[in-house]
């Protein structure tokens, strides 16, 4: 929880919304020095290593989401995220690069 709050406090959460569909995803900044951004669907998926290793690979029951998903959920709940609008084509391109 603390690590997710740190990401949130540092402004590391952006919601990207496609137009005209209104479909959206979150880009959440990692904590490493590389400052990678992870594509995140708060209820379903994150592209970070931890999500795939701990949650998908090991079926971790105690941890139902990674810090990036938690940061995205918190950001949405308190309205503390940047908004970015792109075309649906650009949004599809982002997803195609997963």
UniProtKB/TrEMBL annotation:
<dbReference type="GO" id="GO:0008270">
    <property type="term" value="F:zinc ion binding"/>
</dbReference>
<keyword id="KW-0863">Zinc-finger</keyword>
<feature type="domain" description="SWIM-type">
    <location>
        <begin position="26"/>
        <end position="77"/>
    </location>
</feature>
<keyword id="KW-0862">Zinc</keyword>
<dbReference type="GO" id="GO:0097196">
    <property type="term" value="C:Shu complex"/>
</dbReference>
<keyword id="KW-0479">Metal-binding</keyword>
<dbReference type="InterPro" id="IPR007527">
    <property type="entry name" value="Znf_SWIM"/>
</dbReference>
<dbReference type="GO" id="GO:0000724">
    <property type="term" value="P:double-strand break repair via homologous recombination"/>
</dbReference>
<protein>
    <recommendedName>
        <fullName>SWIM-type domain-containing protein</fullName>
    </recommendedName>
</protein>
